[in-house]
């Protein structure tokens, strides 16, 4: 089993798939491919988990939209170096995705139902981070984002006003 520490998602236009270049804590890399059909089925599972952990007492759509925008700002301010799959790294097509809860995190498991299984723990904002990355890649592949909820796409509805100064 391959443990994913982090990954970089790519819009693989030649394959019309999402490619996750993943790295393990010990520095090993793999490239995992996701078809649109599987991704469209996986996104609602991740959305359900994110919505289940919304802050109580605040309307869910508003709280999640605000949290997602905060996450985007933090990602913009603190970018992470992209993962580059090493020459000769394993490359495989994911056929099944499992999303489960384990103590204080969501466990995301990708498998080809044969020899390859990759697991990533998603504590805290991890699920919303994965959704954000997938949403960006969907746009790069020009796939419709129907699987994503309104709180994920709310940013697109806001006009770009440029930078603002606050006193």
Give, in order, the helices and strands.
Answer: EEEEHHEEEEHH
Beta-strand proportion? 25-35%
Largest sheet: 4 strands, mixed
Gyration radius, rounded:
16 Å
**Which spans have pLDDT < 50 for at least 5 consecutive residues?**
156-167
Judged by helices, strands and strand pairing, the structural class is alpha/beta
Got a strand count? 8
Shape: globular
Topology:
Layout: E1 2-3, E2 6-12, E3 17-23, E4 29-34, H1 36-52, H2 60-77, E5 90-93, E6 96-102, E7 105-111, E8 117-123, H3 126-141, H4 150-157
Parallel strand pairs: 1-8, 4-5
Antiparallel strand pairs: 2-3, 3-4, 6-7, 7-8
Helix pairs in contact: 1-3, 2-4
List keywords for this structure.
four-stranded mixed beta sheet; 35% helix; 167 residues; alpha/beta
Please characterize this protein's 3D structure:
The structure is a single chain. The protein is α/β, with parallel strands linked by helices and 167 residues long. It has 4 helices and 8 strands. It has a 4-stranded mixed sheet, covered by helices on one side. It has a 4-stranded mixed sheet with strand order 2-3-4-5. A hairpin with a 5-residue loop joins strand 7 and strand 8. 25% of the residues are buried.
The gist of it:
With about 170 residues, the protein is α/β, with parallel strands linked by helices. The protein has four helices and eight strands, in the order E-E-E-E-H-H-E-E-E-E-H-H. Helix content is about 35%, strand content about 30%.
